[in-house]
Each structure stands twice: as C-alpha cells, then as structure tokens.
C-alpha cells in the first residue's frame, strides 16, 4: 500500500512557480546579506591590499571542501530521490526510519572528520597554500591553521543542515532552507564589524595570530551553527523526530551508498580542480579573496533563481521518473531550462556591461581600494561568460539525480574538470591573464560539460525539444545584448554627469543602469516573443495585484 498523500504534490506548473517564487525571495534576501557579508570583509581586512582576506577565505572554504568530499553531494542530491521513493512507496514511518539512519551516519562520519581535520590542520593548510611565495608562506600557514581548527566543526552542522533540507524539500517545504543562510550572514557581518572596531589598524591587516582574530574564527563558526539550528522548528513541524538509529545495512542506505559512489567521484574531481585554482590564485596577493568575492557575485542570478528552479523541480522530477512518466519529466526539464535561460543570459550581459560599477559600489570601502575593484571586476566579467553553461550543467545534473543516475554527471564532470584545468594553466601562464584567466577557465570547462550532458539527456529522453530551446536561447541572447548595451550607456552617461566618487553617486549609477537594462530586456523580449518572460511578467503582476 502506498502512502502518496504524505508527500504534498507540488508538481504542477502553478505549484512550481509558487515554490520557486518563495525560494527566490528567500535566496534574494540571503544573497543581499551575502553581499553585505563580503562588503564587511573587504571593509574590515581588504582584498588585494593584504593576504589576510585570502587566508581567511581559504581556511573557511576548507571545511566546505572536506564536507563535500565526504557527504555533501550525497546529502544534497542523492538522498532526496531515494527518500521520495520510500515516502511515496512505503509510507512515512519507513521514510522517517531511513532519514534517522542517514542522520546517524552523518553525525558519526563528520564528527570523525572534524577531529581529523583539527589534528592535521597544518598539513591541510600547507597543501592549499602551495602557491604562496616563500616570504609570506609561514605566516599564512600559521594563521590558516589557527582559523581552520576553529572552522572544522562547521562540517558537522553542514551535514545536519543538508539532511534537514533534504527532508523539508521532499515535503515541498522550501522556505526555511532558503531563509536560514540570512542568519549566518548577519552573524558574520557583525563578527567582522566587531573585529574592525576591536583590532587596531596594524592588527587588522597583520598575518600574526592574535586574540582579536579569535573573534573572526568563533563568529564565523557560530553563523553556521545558527543557520542549521534555524531549520529545526520546520523539521519538527512536518512530524520528524530524531532518534539514534544504527543498522546501516538498510536497503535504502545501501541504495544511497550505491548512488553515492559516482557522486563522490563527481565531487572529488571538482575539489581537485579547485585545489589547483587555489594554488594558482595564491601566486597573486589577494588572488584567493578576489576569486572568492567575484564568484559570490557571479553566482547571484544562479543562486537566486536557478537553484530555486532545480530545488523545486527535483522532488517533482523524482516523482515523475518513479511513475515512469517520461513526458511529464520532459516537460519539467523544458520548463527548468527555459526559465533558467531568460534569467541568467541577460544577467551575463549585465555583469559584462556594468561589472566594475557594481564591484565599486559593493566592495570599495574601508581597506578595499581601487586595486581590489579592478581585480574583482576583471574576474567577474570572465566568470559571467560561463553563467548560463554553469547553471545549465547544475540543472541537468540534478535532473540525472532525479533519475537516480549519478554515474553520467560524474563521468561528464571528469571531462569538464580536465578541460577546466588545462584552460586554467593556458590562460594563467601562456596568455598571462592571471586570476581572471582562472574565471575564464571555469567558463570554458562548464561550457563543454553542459553541452555533453545535454547530449546525454537527449539520448536518454529521445527528444528534448532541442530546436525550440535553441530558438529561445538565441532570442534571449539577442535581447540580452540590447540589455547590456543600454545598461553600459546609462552607467557611462551618469558617471560623466555625476561622477562616481560618493556612495550616493554609485547607487544612482548602478541602480539606474540595472533598471534601464531590465526595462530594455522586457521590451526586447516582448518584440522577440519570448513567452517565458511574458509568463513571468504576468505572474509578477498578478502577485503585485494581490
């Protein structure tokens, strides 16, 4: 007997739009506070002005890397389709039992990894700082080790949060996971403001370990803890109660482990490629911080919209595939690709056209000066070229996970990572592009990987309405060129009229350019009959009216 009524449907286009809208609002607020977070870091410790910011980013990213290598890809993707299958096919109690086992495994494995990371922190940091010039490396290693030992407990809370998010998403509860990161960002912002006020001017940029730097270490980890605990009330509201549950040779756990083999390959390849990026970026003062800051900005359209799209689609697509409804699956995929294209392609044009004014507005304050703005803006403009391929690849990867196929994305990702790495060395050294060359390598790698994955998906589904999608992308690109041109002209005109020396001038310049670009895209999209944009416009007007 099935227990389908326990999983809210949420699979029709109307529910998809509502769920995506809720997540987009939450993610937008999260990203706004995320921008304030990187602005606070730049204000407090700079970007290109010192190696402190890069050391902080490197140490703070390391728990993410270790977590992803261990369980991240499994918990964020493979777990949901299997949980949905158990929930719909065997009932809620059987599904809860699977979730409790996964929680238990997560806690045990990540606690062991936390202890190991604390013990081996000096060697881990030495690996990730291989590119730092010898004159600075010892200080970077010592401070990085100090930070990493405080940051390692984060991975336990990342794991708990990932399982909780998977359970909530499987029940079409998307709000809490999208709003929880706001709390994390606010705590980190307060942490860096406090550090800047407490530390003296000399200590703010020094690589020496000091009691003041413990503020950064403790505050950053507390942000992750608070983000995870914020999910618990929502988890309890759907009826879940955690109990320590052993017996890990359960059928569903074995299924997850089987699917996870290829997910681990996928994640491991990504992390090796990222390690090489860090080694190269460390050759430039502020390179890691500039790369990380530009990547956060680059991910804005993807994180606000595309992540919301495939998070809303994954449970629905998993359900369609379980029911062997290929047409329904194909329709959801077409909806996801079309919705993604009309958001991220014009965003690409916007980043290229007005990337420097955006970076100046957000980051050129406090210790961060014009050198930081120029470096981050150059990295951002080349990242932007790969925005649609990156988002498309992530959407297609989740679509294969919905089919409970983790092998195909892993193998394609290996090819993409090899292309990415070769391109990085080519652009960094041979063309002498420096850190911006690493962003261009990222774009090239994902362009190749997304094309390969799209071909594989077409073979699996036999058809994916390729001509219609190609037409949509072509028309959206044409409209986006108009967007970029208008935004650039408005930003340049206002800079000549008003200047860009004050915060008010910068806000007027960027805000006016973005508004003009959006209006230009809407007009061009209407002329080119891009139906997805018109549907989005009607939805927004209807919601505004209500």
SSE layout and pairings?
Layout: H1 13-45, H2 52-90, H3 92-119, H4 121-128, H5 134-151, H6 154-170, H7 175-198, H8 201-205, H9 211-229, H10 232-237, H11 251-281, H12 287-298, H13 300-322, H14 326-363, H15 370-384, H16 387-402, H17 407-430, H18 435-461, H19 466-498, H20 503-527, H21 531-545
Helix pairs in contact: 1-7, 1-13, 2-3, 2-5, 2-6, 2-11, 2-12, 2-13, 3-6, 4-5, 5-9, 6-9, 7-9, 11-17, 12-15, 12-18, 13-14, 13-16, 14-15, 14-16, 14-19, 14-20, 15-18, 16-18, 17-18, 19-20
Summarize the entry for a quick read:
With 546 residues, the protein is mostly helical.
Notes on the protein architecture:
By secondary structure, this protein is mainly α. The chain folds into two domains: 4-464, no CATH class; 475-540, no CATH class. The chain has 21 helices and no strands. The chain has helices at 13-45, 52-90, 92-119, 121-128, 134-151, 154-170, 175-198, 201-205, 211-229, 232-237, 251-281, 287-298, 300-322, 326-363, 370-384, 387-402, 407-430, 435-461, 466-498, 503-527, 531-545. Mean pLDDT is 83; it is low at 1-11.
């Amino acid at each position: 007997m099935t227990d389908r009524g326990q999983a809210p449907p949420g699979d029709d286009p109307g529910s998809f739009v509502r769920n995506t809208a809720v997540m987009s609002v939450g993610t937008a607020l999260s990203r706004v506070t995320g921008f304030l977070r990187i602005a606070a870091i730049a204000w407090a410790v700079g970007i290109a002005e010192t190696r402190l910011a890069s050391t902080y980013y490197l140490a703070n990213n390391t728990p993410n890397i270790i977590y992803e290598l261990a369980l991240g890809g499994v918990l964020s993707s493979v777990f949901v389709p299997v949980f949905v299958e158990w929930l719909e096919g065997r009932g809620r109690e059987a599904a809860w039992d699977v979730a409790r086992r996964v929680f238990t495994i997560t806690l045990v494995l990540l606690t062991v990894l936390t202890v190991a990371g604390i013990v081996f922190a000096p060697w881990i940091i030495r690996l990730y700082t291989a590119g730092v010039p010898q004159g600075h490396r010892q200080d970077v290693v010592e401070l990085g080790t100090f930070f990493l030992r405080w940051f390692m407990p984060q991975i336990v809370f990342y794991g708990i949060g990932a399982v909780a998010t998977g359970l909530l998403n499987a029940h079409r509860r998307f709000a809490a996971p999208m709003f929880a990161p706001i709390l994390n960002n606010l705590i980190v912002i307060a942490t860096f403001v406090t550090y800047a006020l407490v530390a003296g001017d000399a200590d703010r940029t020094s690589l020496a370990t000091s009691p003041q730097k413990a503020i950064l270490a403790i505050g950053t980890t507390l942000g992750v803890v608070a983000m995870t605990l914020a999910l618990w009330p929502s988890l309890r509201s759907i009826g879940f109660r955690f109990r320590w549950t052993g017996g890990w040779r359960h059928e569903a756990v074995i299924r997850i482990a089987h699917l996870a083999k290829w997910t681990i390959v996928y994640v491991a390849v990504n992390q090796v490629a990222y390690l090489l990026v860090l080694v190269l970026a460390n050759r430039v003062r502020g390179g890691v911080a500039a790369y990380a800051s530009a990547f956060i900005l680059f991910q804005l359209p993807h994180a606000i919209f595309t992540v919301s799209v495939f998070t809303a689609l994954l449970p629905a697509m998993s359900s369609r595939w379980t029911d062997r409804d290929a047409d329904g699956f194909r329709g959801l995929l077409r909806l996801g690709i079309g919705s993604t294209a009309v958001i991220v392609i014009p965003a690409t044009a916007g980043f290229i056209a007005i990337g420097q004014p955006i970076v100046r507005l957000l980051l050129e304050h406090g210790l961060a000066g014009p050198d930081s703005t120029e470096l981050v803006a150059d990295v951002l403009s080349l990242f932007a070229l790969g925005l649609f391929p990156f988002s498309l690849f992530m959407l297609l990867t989740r679509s294969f996970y919905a089919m409970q196929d983790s092998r195909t994305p892993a193998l394609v990702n290996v090819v993409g990572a090899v292309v990415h790495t070769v391109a990085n060395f080519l652009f960094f050294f041979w063309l002498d592009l420096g850190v911006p060359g690493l962003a261009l390598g990222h774009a090239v790698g994902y362009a190749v990987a997304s094309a390969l994955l799209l071909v594989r998906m077409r073979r699996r589904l036999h058809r994916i309405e390729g001509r219609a999608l190609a037409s949509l992308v072509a028309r959206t690109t044409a409209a986006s060129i108009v967007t970029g041109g208008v935004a650039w002209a408005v930003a340049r005109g206002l800079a000549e009229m008003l200047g860009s020396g004050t915060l008010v001038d910068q806000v007027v310049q960027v805000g006016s350019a973005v508004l003009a670009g959006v209006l230009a895209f809407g007009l061009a999209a209407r002329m080119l009959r891009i139906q997805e944009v018109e549907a989005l416009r009607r939805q927004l007007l209807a919601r505004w009216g209500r």
